[in-house]
Amino acid sequence: MSWDDLSKNKMKWPAVSEVHRYRKQVYEAVSNLISNLTDEQCANGITQDSPLWSLAMSFEHERIHLETSSVLLSEMPIEHVKFPANFPAYHPTANDNSIEKNPIAGQHYPINEMITVSSQKVTLGKARDYPSFGWDNEYGRRDYQVPEFKASKFLITNGEYLEFVRDGGYGNPDYWTDVGWKFRAFRNVKWPSFWMRKGPQGLHHFDLRLIFDEVPMKWSWPVVVNYHEAEAYAKWKSVKTGQKYRVMTELEHNAIRNPKQVSSSSSLSLL
Question: Is the domain of 159 the same as that of 115?
């Protein structure tokens, strides 16, 4: 980003030891509360009228920070991170140490195809008395009629995205929105953030950065990019194929989760 929350004021941050003491106090208080809950308190779920609502909100908020932290950890120098002993292992394919610098579609990553998703009604929102936590913008109800569309059978892979990188996609502003190009220029990015260049830049040889490790590139794995990069890829794909590609909408994401309306039981994503 071109801004930094840590630099916008002269706030004095507490020492790490103070944070640890505070975290311990909170952990003990919350643990004691949970262990002493009665069956009656939990019988009807947790609604907005329950004192436990703030507890559920804290859990949800913590999950958001865990997701954010996973990205921040992935951006740290590899020598400053270590795989935690009690964490679940990476996907088994992460242990495949075969190195392929010049992947071939259909061999090292799947050839994607477009699958038709039928026109359908999609309902967003939940009732106020729904017996679990929700953020304020999740409530209410609204029905939408989503027109028929096509979506890619698979998530866009590292191998597919490499084609965009090799074709100079990061150097051509025609593929980017104005705000996307400002991001690209500010960060001076030339490929996805978690691709680790190996060798001269022009060879486009990469390893893949995971949270705690670097491994040989997994060309069949989904590429991890932000919205600006996804939009640029879709525009590039449109230009190269003469077909109209774009990033999926929220309503379309909901539609592909209805197996009755999809002509295949495959995973769908992105375009």
Answer: yes
Within this chain, do residues 45 and 171 fall inside the same structural domain, yes or no? no
Residues 188 and 58 in one domain: no
Phi, psi of 209 (to 5 degrees): -85, 120
Residue of 144, 139, 94 lying closest to 123 (CA atoms): 144
* Beta carbons within 8 Å of 100's beta carbon, 6+ residues apart: 108, 216, 217, 219
Model confidence pLDDT, tens digit, residues 57-113: 999 999 999 999 999 999 999 999 999 999 999 999 998 888 899 999 999 999 999
If we measure between CA atoms, which residue out of 66, 64, 38 comes closest to residue 52? 38
The full DSSP string for 220-250 is TSBP---HHHHHHHHHHHHHHHSS---PPPH
- How far CA 243 is from CA of 37, 114, 151, 234, 246, in Å, comes to 58, 11, 13, 10, 10
**Parent domain of 141:** 89-271
Position 139, amino acid: Y
